[in-house]
Write a structure and sequence with these properties.
This protein is of the alpha/beta class and 233 residues long. The chain has two domains: 1-36, no CATH class; 45-226, 3-Layer(aba) Sandwich (Rossmann fold), CATH 3.40.50. The chain contains nine helices and six strands, in the order H-H-H-E-H-H-E-H-H-E-H-E-E-H-E. The strands form two sheets. Strands 1-6-5-2 form a four-stranded parallel β-sheet, with helices on both faces. The chain has a two-stranded antiparallel sheet with strand order 3-4. It is globular.
């Protein structure tokens, strides 16, 4: 009833199908489009989760060459459709209410038992410009749902870097080298690292490496979406 009243006074069109939004929880999305967000269940690398062509794939070429510092990377779906639109609206348009339903999507993943949840941090310059960290907002709702401590100050981004979309290939790793530091006590802890989108995995690799070097027992990555791999990237 409350949801219907809110939509009555604050009507909006679904950005996917342009029909009227019918649920404040998913607003501006309609229930059908939100419920249409699919969890990825296709073949993937057993460690980084990179989508694969064959069901017989156990590890991708990248993980065979160099095992990531994290134990496993999990994600809800492919970065497309309603999921991509929702992340964009939260991240670039400041539709903060979407952080709750997006956080609840993460709670549906087969997450391990951990001692703390750590969101991928933003540099203070980027945070000042955007005014909030969308990953921290998502992680806050997941923390509440799982009743696991949210550790927003455990990991900090100490170096301003170019947007990862502006660099490619191996340059992404160089761009983030020594960009993060640990400021909290994480020794011996099993941690869940949260990100919104995994593209090449360079960001979560660098974050996980920093956490492990600082004494974390293990790091598992959980993201909302993963980009489909492109050729020669």
């Amino acid at each position: 009833m409350f949801s219907k009243l809110l939509n009555l006074f604050f009507p909006s069109k679904c950005p996917v199908c342009e029909s009227k939004s019918d649920s404040y929880l998913y607003n501006p999305f309609c229930t059908n489009c939100w419920k249409g967000i699919e969890k990825y269940s296709g073949p993937a690398c057993g460690i980084c989760g990179r989508p694969a062509i064959s069901v017989h794939t156990t590890l991708c070429e990248s993980c065979m060459k160099a095992k990531p510092p994290f134990s496993k990377a999990l994600y809800y779906g492919i970065y497309e459709g309603a999921l991509k639109e929702a992340i964009h609206l939260l991240k670039f348009n400041g539709v903060k209410r979407l952080s709750k339903p997006l956080g609840l999507l993460l709670s549906e993943l087969p997450l391990p038992e951990v001692n703390g949840i750590v969101p991928v941090p933003m540099h203070h310059k980027g945070l000042k410009q955007r005014e909030f960290n969308q990953t921290a907002a998502i992680a806050a709702h997941l923390s509440k749902k799982l009743r696991v401590p949210l550790m927003t100050d455990a990991l900090k981004k100490t170096k301003a870097t170019l947007p990862q979309t502006d660099v490619g290939g191996e340059e992404r790793l160089k761009n983030l080298k020594n960009a993060f530091s640990v400021s909290g006590k994480i020794s011996g802890m099993d941690l869940l690292l949260i990100d919104d989108v995994i593209t090449t995995g360079a960001t979560v690799r660098e974050c996980a490496k920093t956490l492990i070097k600082s004494g974390a027992k293990s790091v598992t990555v959980a993201a909302l979406a993963r980009s489909m791999p492109r050729q020669n990237t």
